[in-house]
Design goal:
This protein is mainly beta. It has helices spanning 4-11, 38-46, 64-76, and strands spanning 132-135, 148-150, 155-160, 163-168, 174-179, 189-194, 200-205, 210-214, 219-224, 231-237, 240-245, 250-254, 261-265, 272-277, 283-288, 293-297, 308-310, 317-322, 329-334, 340-345, 350-356, 361-366, 372-377, 384-388, 393-398, 405-410, 417-421, 425-429, 452-455. GO terms for molecular function: anaphase-promoting complex binding; ubiquitin ligase activator activity. Residues 1-23 are annotated as: Disordered.
Length: 457
């Protein structure tokens, strides 16, 4: 029997003389990997606690409230009941499609990885036939006049001989706005232009007058005089009105004051046939039968000097269009001897591009929804051409007019363009439509039941 002192000595390892266990008796357990059923363990973990039949006692007891909550989630996320293991979010590429008949409609709801995937661009269908045709008898066949405009009130004003008519695009109603003196057979309408308010319209005449009319009341507000010959070009800029005449002059009017003429510009050697203020009102572009294009700065227009004098065209410059998405970009079109559309940086006066259209350029209109330009032409095809900017790839040709397409105007919503031609018809083209639905039907230009034809008189 051991004494207490001896037992204490043997049990306490810190006591001098106590025996130390051998190193072979202390070690960690390293299992054999081949003896482990890792596949079975992984399978059991992936079952997410689901047992087999007969194991209902080991399953988690679920309350009615929890079942109702899960059902509500499934209904809101369009998940089929019973597909609890379906993934809602996935952060990798979509798995290969399952065999036919094995699809689970809920599994693919949010499994597409959209990162880096570009949305497929829908191809816009451009109708090849006009949406509507209106007869326009006595529309004067004169390249240097500007006889149609579409106002913000959604009314089209068109000059037919000595009379201005208004066609309401909402109702289809036609009203007569004004008429020159019937006793003067030499007088006729030479230009029309709506003000930004859609209420007032300026009318130029062959007798060198510019008349301001209140379209809502068909009442003449005032008459502006100063030109010595017909006024073929008009452009509004707020309360300012620029007019260009056959007397080779451009007049700037302030319609609010009695002495309305604030500046007279004599920079052209022949008739002024094109006149357009920029959308910002900072610059004015003028084109003439002398093949010249001038750019004026609004802040220094009183000095009667042009900011730029551009002489690259080889024929009359009537077609002018300011770009809606770049303030200093101007497109201009030349007559029969030129046939080119040219693009200008109006800040520097540099020509950016020139495209030969192989036909007289009568009018230009920018698409306000896309980077596109529409041009109207004369002999030989009398067509409208839609161009992609800046590549100037021709996207479509719109045909149907039987004579040169002298004028164009654009609807307030920027989807429709009306063209007026020497064949005495107006044609409405929905060529700028940017709607998502692309279910337009191809219309037959000769089908009078589809192309509703009206007469102004």
């Amino acid at each position: 029997m051991l004494s207490p002192a001896r037992r204490a000595t043997e049990c306490d390892p810190h006591v001098r003389g106590a025996s130390t266990p051998s190193r072979a008796q202390v070690d960690r357990f390293i299992p054999s990997r081949s003896a482990l059923d890792l596949d079975v363990a992984h399978y059991n973990m992936s079952q997410d606690g689901r047992g087999t039949e007969g194991e209902d006692d080991s399953k988690e007891i679920r309350s009615p409230a929890k079942e109702a909550y899960k059902k509500s989630l499934a209904d809101n996320f369009h998940v089929e009941r019973g597909s609890d293991s379906a993934k809602i979010l996935a952060f990798k590429s979509k798995a290969p499609a399952p065999p036919s008949g094995m699809e689970n409609s809920a599994r693919g709801v949010y499994t597409n990885n959209s990162a880096g995937v570009r949305a497929k661009k829908t191809c816009r269908q451009i109708p090849s036939a006009p949406e509507r045709i209106l007869d326009a008898p006595e529309l004067i066949d004169d390249y240097y006049l500007n006889l149609i405009d579409w106002g913000s009130s959604n009314q089209v004003a068109v000059a037919l001989g000595c009379t201005v008519y208004m066609w309401n695009a909402d109702t289809g109603a036609i009203n007569q706005l004004c008429q020159t003196n019937p006793a003067d057979e030499e007088d006729y309408i030479t230009s029309v232009n709506w003000g930004a308010d859609g209420k007032h319209i300026a009318v130029g005449t062959n007798s060198a007058e510019v008349q301001i009319w209140d379209a809502s009341q068909c009442k003449k507000v005032r008459t502006l005089r100063g030109h010595a010959a017909r006024v073929g070009a008009i452009s509004w800029n707020g309360s300012q009105l620029a007019t260009g005449g056959r007397d080779n002059t451009i007049m700037i009017h302030d319609v609010r004051i009695r002495e309305h003429c604030t500046s007279t510009l004599r920079v052209h050697q022949q008739e002024v046939c094109g006149l357009k203020w920029s959308p910002s009102g900072n610059q004015l572009a003028s084109g003439g039968n002398d093949n010249l294009l001038h750019i004026f700065d609004a802040t220094s227009i009183g000095n009667r000097q042009a900011l730029h004098r551009l002489d690259a065209h080889q024929a009359a410059v009537k077609a002018l269009a300011w770009c809606p998405f770049q303030s200093n970009l101007l497109a201009s079109g030349g007559g029969t001897a030129d046939r080119c559309i040219k693009f200008w940086n109006t800040n520097t006066g540099a020509m950016l591009n020139s495209v030969d259209t192989h036909s007289q350029v009568c009018s230009l209109q920018w698409n306000t929804h896309e980077r596109e330009l529409l041009s109207s032409h004369g002999y030989s095809q009398n067509q409208l051409c839609l161009w992609k900017y800046p590549t100037m790839t021709k996207m479509a040709e719109l045909t149907g007019h039987q004579a040169r397409v002298l004028h164009m105007a654009q609807s307030p919503d920027g989807t429709t363009v009306v063209s007026a031609a020497a064949d005495e018809t107006l044609r409405f083209w929905k060529c700028f439509d940017n709607s998502v639905e692309k279910t337009k039907k191809v219309r037959d230009a000769n089908d009078s039941s589809v192309l509703r034809r009206f007469n102004f008189r």
